[in-house]
Amino acid sequence: MRFLFAARLLTVLGLWLVMSSAWGQKTAPRSAYQQFAMQTRLDKPVSTTCFARLDNTNFYSLPAPEAFLKARNARTAAPQSSTFIVTYNGFPDNARAAFQLAVDIWQSVIKSPIPIRMTANWTNLGSPSRNRVTLGQASPSDYYRLYGPTQKTDAFYPIALAEKIARRELNGTAPDIGASFNSQVNWYLGTDGKPGPTQLDFVTVVLHEIGHGLGFVSGRSVGNNNTASIFTFVFDAFVENGQGQKLINETIFPDNSAALYNQFVGDNLFFNGPILQQKTGQKARLYAPSTFQPGSSTSHLDERTYPDGSINELMTPEASNGVANFNPGPLTLAMFEDMEWKTTSIIHETPLRDSEEVTDRTLTFDVFSDTTLVANSVRLFIGRGAATANVASYSAVTPTLIPGTTNRYSFTIPASQATGRIGYYFQVQDASGRTFTSPGKLSSTGQQFIYGATLGPDNVPPTIAQLGLRTNGLFTSPTATTVAGTNNYYVFTSTDTLNVSAIIRDDRLTGVDTAYVEYQINGVNQTPAPMRYTEQIRELTDGQALVDSVYMARLRFPAGSLTAGSRIQYRVVAIDSARARNRVVFPAQGFYDIAVVAPQATARTSYSTSFADPVASAADFVTNGFTVGQPSGFQSPMLQSEHPYRNGNTYDFENNTSAVLLAPIRLKANPDSATIRFSEIALIEPGETGTRYGDPGFFDYVIVEGSKDGGRTWQPMIEGYDARDNNDWNRTWNNSLSGVSPDINSSAPGTPTLFKQREIRMLETGLFRPNDVVLIRFRLYADQLSYGWGWAIDNLQIQVPPPPPILATEPTRSVQFTVYPNPSSNGSIRVEAKLARAATEAGLTVTSPMGQTLRTIALPVRGTTINEPIDLTQLPTGLYLLQLKVGDTTETKKIMITR
Q1: What are 519-539's pLDDT values in tens digits?
Q2: Is the pTM of this model over 0.90?
Q3: Which candidate, 830, 837, 839, 832, places its Cα nearest to that of 813?
């Protein structure tokens, strides 16, 4: 199982994406500022690396854009449209003038009311080779996702652009762009655009790197197994292939997929936006070579389409010696406008908040534009009640321009209409035909986000979900079908703490006031354990995600307070902050039960069971999510997981079910004797190809573990494994798949023919030694996505010698016994026997080489002759033993089934 990259998770506060799950997603109060702009950061911002060819013979110079040239003319200069503040580290004085020229060019073509702070490092990035050299690298220092003024609400914006749109500092005086330049390059540091034939023009390279820092960068990433992901930057919202398919469309290009990877190496990617089409009449071809270049692919224009001398070649991946280019190019500048470097910001700093007060509600907002707005185009759209789920039904009203201002508007919703669910958004149009909204829209579909609140009396209690229990470092999620009074977990008498977690949310942002765990021990009420609000980090296979509204409590058990046979009962209670103090209890009636167990008093040197007597076998085990019973399609009981097994339903996307043998085993000194043998079927979700236990792409698994301290801590006796451990299991899993990636489940059932033998040498890992007394645990781990039939274990033998080999033929004069065909290609055979004297009946037993009885068949005898067809087609390929018993006489034959 895998989980989508963290960028796919929308944490919406103070506004809703219009869908059924939009209501009640938060419980912790937030400030108005936090509602205005919530941040998600990258731990390691994507960086681009740029190179140069040193064999160029086509020397040329391209002048700066007209806007820059006008700005230098004192008579035509317009006010400076943006300001860069550069901090130099290690820079020689003679390089600063060239750097400043590049800064001045960008200052003339982009607009921002917020200073753009940049750190520039002069450092060794490697010496030139004969034809190639690394010039520099740059990236935004942070990416922000803003809920409100940005038009791609789910996309991440480079910090300088996010501050421009928000019209305020978001990171204080910290740098917005970080860049490094190679001190080992033969730079031309002049500002006249005339580098020598062997020199690289520094102004050109700085201009290019600042372009990356301002947002010319893709959030794509590629794995080691030719799969890819996108952490959606605003740049990526406009990337599509030649067929017009957006790469952020997960229906076509799932995250972590080969399909997405193939787009990145298919030489068929384009940036396509409305301003780009309006101003240039074309899409911009991106650099997507057949071999993925981590620092270059997708984050540059295509080198072949925009070669040396092209007005658009600045943002291609390679610079050239003897060339000066002071112009970002019309394609790049239009792309920047599409990414909202030319935009209209609708700033709504005080969205409606949930409240029980019934009063007039005034909505106030500001409109700032880099362009000309259509007169009287400012609109407010409002939906009420059930209609908030359908923005097409919203009513449009015209806000009032507040007297004495040029850009501040307001609208008052009267108290009579300001009750129940309220959803709203703002809209304005500019002269170019663009429509801007606040909040913005979903990048992939254009679905409108809304601000929202629930007003008036609150009579709805909180909701409790994803209940989890954690002890000994493992999460278990009690089954959703468990009823109160049914044991769904166990702890050992040595347990001193039990952590209880749940995701508790209220339908309003006023939130949950109180949550706690009520519990009893043997019917005696204990002091309730308070649950505290936390935000947890969920570890994913390719990143991390923040999970809010996780309430956690710790139940403490003093030494000696838990005895074998004790019973812990618990339930979760939550009360919201409403005047009515709405209360919810989980489960709704009664309590969940936890069994307290202890190992058996006497250690054994061996243990074996065929599980033929489910009651007797179950007495030796304590289980959670396992039972001793007979699965559908089988002829005898066994130890089994649930079918299908449950996936992870705790906040950490984890679920562990297990069965512990309560009979302690004293390990033998002989490694060949200290073994566990059993027959098993493990239809467990396969991990990614090539992954092993412990790797990020190794998903669900089963494992056998041992404890030397009475169940407090556990260590592996074998590495975890899944259906890939056996070809028959893996083939069966893949034969019956359903669902949509990455949540693809297998409905293939286990059958007797899938049983395989497992032998575990308990001393082999070095974690266990001769004479250790250990408990043995069978555990199934599942994460949050795919699931299948599960695990079954039969004929368990611990430190039991294997049965002696049975001779293929034991000579006897009383029976002549023949089996044919042998080998059998399909399992259909015939048994013939000639008896020395007449008999009325005979018996045929089919066993495995390990002595496991598979079938017992009664054969008719006609006088002294047996001649019967036998159907063994359900058995898999392998060697089997047939024992014919007539009276006191036994004859044995080997039979080989081949396919």
Answers
A1: 999 999 999 999 999 887 766
A2: no
A3: 837
